[in-house]
Amino acid sequence: MADSNRLGDIEITDPQAMRALAHPVRLAILDHLRRHGPATATQLAPDVGATPSVTSWHLRHLAGFGLVRDSEPGPDRRQRRWEAVARGFRFEAPQDPTDEEGRAAARALSQQMFLRYADVPGRWAAEVEPGLDPQWRRAAGLADTRVVVSADELAAIEDGIERVLAPYVNRDPAERPTDGRGVRLMRYLLPEGAEEQPGQTS
User: Fold this and answer.
1) What's the CA gap between 156 and 153, in Å, rounded?
2) Can you point out the beta strands (E) in the chain?
3) Largest separation between any pair of C-alpha atoms in the chain
């Protein structure tokens, strides 16, 4: 993972924060706030599959780890509105092999994220793609490319992708094209096991 954090993500290094986020309702809350902007617990509840009181509890838990914060009040100042602290977040397993707590927490968060997002491409293909204009349909899609690289080279590839993305992620909303629309870019970096390497012919 590149140290420069070109996309302005919040960096999660505390194992307790990773475990706090490794929960389906909390991931859903953070997704909703990042995508739709500030909301109250009552507004979030139907989308995240929890009651307003349970949603409020999860919000306070996320706030305790600096992942969400109070937003500007809405029309009804009696209702507490929340917002995501950053557009995205990133984390990684600690390099120290003796940090078992950190490695386990990173693994738990990774697994929960894979579970949450595993069906996103299939739902997109079934529900969204059929209604897209031809130009958007041509621009969309997926790629599955296998490369043989070192860990440092893989980090450089990821940094290069972020270098390309950063101007679009960080630009002011007023500078977005009038015909623009939200696009979800899902990147999976999946190193193979050592037993899969003999030959390395493809």
Assistant:
1) 5
2) 10-12, 39-40, 68-70, 81-84, 89-91
3) 65
Amino acid occupying residue 2:
A
Res 94: pLDDT? 86
Structure tokens, 171: 């630009």
Query: Residues 97-140: pLDDT tens digits?
Result: 889 999 999 999 999 999 999 999 999 999 999 999 999 999 99
Enter the tokens of residue 45: 């509840």
pTM: 0.81
Amino acid letter, 11:
E
Cα–chain center distance at 171: 19
Structural domains in the chain, CATH included, are: 10-170 (1.10.10.10)
Beta pairing partners, 12: 91
Distances from the Cα of 128 to the Cαs of 34, 134, 184, in angstroms? Answer: 20, 13, 12
Sign, CA torsion 14/39/52/25 = negative
- How far separated are the first and last CA of the chain, in Å rounded? 24
Nearest to 106 by CA among 171, 1, 12: 12
Are the C-beta atoms of residues 125 and 132 closer than 8 Å to each other?
no
